[in-house]
Amino acid sequence: MPETVAICDDHKIVREGLRQIISLFDGFDVIADVESGESLFQIVHRQNPSMIILDVSLPGRSGLEVLKQIKALRPEIKVLVLSMYPEDQFAIRMLKAGASGYLHKDSEPAILKEALTTIAKGGEYLSPTITRLMFKEMNAEGEDLPHKTLSDREYEVLLYIGEGKTISEIAHQLSLSVKTISTYRTRILEKMQLENNSELIKYIMLHELAPGTSDA
Q: What pLDDT sits at residue 39?
């Protein structure tokens, strides 16, 4: 029996591309592709896929929230996270939440096939970068950087700020109100003990949290 795969990504061209690529792999059958967590939950209830390919950035519930709820509902479902964010920005959070692997969207199809095959066999796909990050975290000796105190959604908003997006743009991207995003921003500043966006940007650049600032 092939692995039944559901794809959740808010970009149609990405979903179509993944369908075409995975159709070339033996042992995998894409049974659905959806653009949001809400639609994915419906697929899980109706079709019960054995594997999910999940994006981090989704409208409404974030990929992290969706992952946690999926694992609570169907812990046996294997989840591969495929994201625009480098491994050092979201991979550890996703793996802790129950993901079986994490890939950057720039990965070659052969790497995607390797990841899917590894996960299908019950393993976890850990790239050299992720392995290094996990080892570093285990040996951090109590290091507790301010951004690690943020909730999953606050962390996602932090990364969008790091990309230079405005409050309105972030609200549109996440399908949330401007007021809600402003509240998240206020919480982020309070938790990280920073005064304004300028200090946030400096922190993000110092710790290589924005796309393009990491050497991953």
A: 95
Mean pLDDT, rounded, for 15-37? 96
Q: Please give the average per-residue pLDDT across 27-50, as a whole number.
A: 95
What pLDDT is stored for residue 93 in this prediction? 83
Whether residues 24 and 111 share a domain: the answer is yes
CATH code of residue 96 = 3.40.50.2300
Q: Name the burial class of residue 194, with classes exposed (0-12), middle (13-18) and buried (19+) by CB atoms within 10 angstroms of its CB.
A: middle
Query: Count of domains in the chain?
Result: 2
Greater model confidence, 138 or 151: 151
137, 163, 179: which is the final residue of a domain?
137
At 83-99, the pLDDT tens digits run 887 666 678 888 888 99
Tokens 């959740």, residue? Answer: 8
Residue 52 domain boundaries: 3-137
Are 197 and 172 within one domain?
A: yes
Instruction: Specify the pTM.
Output: 0.75
Rounded Cα–Cα distance for residues 61 and 98 (Å): 17
Is position 211 within any domain? no
pLDDT of residue 89: 66
214 is a domain residue: no
Considering the domain architecture, whether residues 101 and 175 belong to the same structural domain is answered as no
